[in-house]
Write a structure and sequence with these properties.
6 strands; 150 residues; alpha+beta
Amino acid sequence: MFEALKPHVLEVLRDSALPVPERLQEVCNLLHNEIPVYDWVGFYFRNGTLEELKLGPYAGDPTDHTVIPFGKGICGQVALSNQNFVVPDVAAQDNYIACSLHVKAEIVIPIFVDGANIGQLDIDSHTPDPFSEKDERFLEFVCEAVAHIL
């Protein structure tokens, strides 16, 4: 499934007729619609020079978490660690920000531009422990492709 989606991701991101936010929205929609366990897909980006993340395009239920301080929740931890973070069971995480009672698992992959962590791709799932190494590698591919248009 992931290999079949890669060309579609690249096609969306290379469509220079669309502004970057619309291309990112299309990537969110694609992942949300094509991967059954991706119940919420969104981008968070560093808010200028502030030590916080600001919500960008996303697909899924609305969230109240439009600004996340560095260090808070899974996304905030990734902003500091610069490392992928796979959470098979969000209930087992002390520093988790609950977006929905339905969320059971989360995966967050940082986006680097010129070596700097400028944002991340955040995926929530209503399915316990749905993410494998294949998800992680595929989402790294998506983030690397996104970095080329930012």
